[in-house]
Design brief:
The chain is mainly α. The protein has six helices and three strands. The protein has two domains: 60 residues; 83 residues, no CATH class. The chain is elongated and about 55 Å long.
Length: 171
């Protein structure tokens, strides 16, 4: 007896990742499964939309939904990215990742590189770079927890995008 078809939700940061996953997703659809793509960011490249359209053409068993994004003019967008980048760095500063320094180094380089390329004022850039350097080093468990708790409080203070509404609120 054949297994019943699955309903699969596949989440991607942007459609460009379909370059790697389109074929396995196509095979799943051919085997009778339904695939829903949840794509977080608008297409980075015009070819990305073509990748989505090819999957949508498969027998009606593929659906796509793009997530809401903040406007580039929304001042919270950059703050949210920074807080989330530092939160990733805090995660990899945990002692359980001591055997995987490449993870910590990669996130550190990403955060510092993005901050240096930003329009952030020079003092703020130095403050963030210093915090990132501390986290990329070997902070104590107590320091990691202090940073984690502070970043959670900042994350909670960031208002949701105006594109998001509670389910009981009319659009």
């Amino acid at each position: 007896m054949a297994a019943p078809p699955l309903r699969i939700v596949f989440s991607l940061m942007h459609a460009g990742y379909l370059r790697h996953y389109a074929e396995p997703l196509r095979i799943l659809v051919e085997r009778g499964h339904e695939v829903h793509l949840s794509i977080g960011q608008p297409d980075k490249d015009p070819v990305d939309r073509l990748l989505v359209e090819r999957l949508l053409a498969l027998d009606g068993r593929v659906t796509v939904r793009y997530g809401p994004t903040r406007s580039y003019l929304d001042g919270w967008r950059r703050i949210a990215w920074l807080v989330r980048g530092l939160t990733d760095l805090v995660r990899f500063a945990n002692a359980r990742y001591d055997g995987a320094p490449a993870l910590r180094e990669r996130v550190h380089a990403k955060v510092v590189g993005r901050v240096q390329a930003s329009r952030m004022d020079p003092l703020s850039k130095r403050v963030v770079a210093r915090a990132a350097a501390r986290l990329a080093g070997a902070p104590s468990a107590e320091q990691v927890e202090r940073y984690r708790a502070a970043l959670i409080r900042v994350e909670q203070a960031i208002p949701p995008s105006s594109h998001l509404r509670p389910a009981d609120e009319a659009p």
